[in-house]
TrEMBL record:
PANTHER family: TRIGGER FACTOR CHAPERONE AND PEPTIDYL-PROLYL CIS/TRANS ISOMERASE, TRIGGER FACTOR-LIKE PROTEIN TIG, CHLOROPLASTIC. This is Trigger factor. It comes from the Bacteria. One of its GO terms (molecular function) is peptidyl-prolyl cis-trans isomerase activity. Residues 1-143 form the Trigger factor ribosome-binding bacterial domain. GO terms for biological process: 'de novo' cotranslational protein folding; protein transport; protein unfolding. It comes from Candidatus Brocadia fulgida. It holds the Pfam family Trigger_N.
Length: 287
């Protein structure tokens, strides 16, 4: 891995990465072996499907996993080695992975400013009042409910952003089906890949659909599409919604409190309030 760090402002840096093709090929080999060992394909026992068939069927997904793994690992390693402390979320440039070539990408991030402070030890700091508001308490309770939420099948409802749907997928080019896939699980969010192609407004295109409904729209197939012949071509994507799943939060009531090991809802609120007070006081002591 080669990385250069450029100053883009007083508190902004640009990390420029170049990952060798050998690293990419090694990670691709590792991920492919993992899939070959676990996948079940019609006509073959688990882990016995031919590698060429596995790569044809799962190649785009394997490449996506390789890209995510390599990018995430190299980015985190650079932060650790150079002791960088980002503020907020980093901005990743375009990341195009081509087998047989090095992977290059840029990351722009804000960092904390560096400055020197003399004679700071022993200085008293004014403590902030550790007041817990009703909004603080309700937010903490909702966060806890989110952690206990369950993905539930929606039988009569309509698709909305944040759902997950089970679909049959068909891709057509010039009226001919070039890909058919059944029972694929798709998060209803913008920027999700379907048929190895990013759909920027997927949530809007699926919004309001119901089980049994087909939605179709035009796309341009990516360079990662499984069939090389059709990469970069205009196509029609058809998605048949078969099942809708939604994250359902539990009601915050007496039963919810007891499932968490508290005697009552008031007991839960009391303990949560104490925890929030401690968190608010944290860091307010003399240095």
């Amino acid at each position: 891995m080669n990385v250069t760090i450029e100053e883009a402002g007083p508190c902004k840096k640009v990390l420029k990465f170049e990952i060798s093709k050998e690293t990419i090929e090694s990670e691709f080999e590792k991920k492919t072996v993992e899939v070959c060992d676990t996948v079940e394909l019609p006509g073959f026992r688990k882990g016995r499907a031919p590698r060429k068939l596995v790569e044809k069927r799962f190649g785009p997904q394997i490449k996506d996993e390789v890209k995510q793994s390599v990018v995430s690992g190299c980015y985190q390693k650079t932060l650790d080695e150079h002791k960088l402390n980002p503020v907020g979320d980093p901005k990743f440039g375009e990341i195009a992975l081509e087998m047989g070539k090095p992977l290059t990408f840029d990351v722009t991030l804000e960092v904390w400013p560096s400055f020197e402070v003399n004679q700071y030890k022993g200085l008293p700091l004014k403590k902030k009042p550790a007041e817990v508001t009703e909004d603080d308490l309700q937010k903490a309770l909702r966060d806890m409910a989110i952690r206990k939420a369950q993905l539930t099948v929606v039988k009569d409802g309509k698709v909305q952003k944040g759902d997950q749907v089970i679909c049959d997928c068909t891709v057509e080019v010039d009226g001919n089906a070039v890909l058919k896939d059944e029972d694929i699980e798709i998060p209803v969010a913008d920027g999700v890949a379907v048929a190895a192609t990013i759909i920027p407004d997927l949530a809007r295109k699926l919004d309001g659909s119901i089980s049994g409904e087909e939605r179709e729209f035009n796309i341009k197939l990516s360079q990662d599409f499984v069939n090389e012949e059709y990469r970069g071509k205009e196509a029609k994507l058809e998605l048949m919604v078969k099942e809708i799943k939604r994250l359902i939060l539990p009601d915050i009531n007496e039963d919810f409190a007891k499932t968490l090991g508290f005697q009552s809802l008031e007991d839960l609120k009391s303990q949560m309030k104490k925890r929030i007070e401690i968190d608010k006081r944290d860091g307010s002591k003399t240095i």
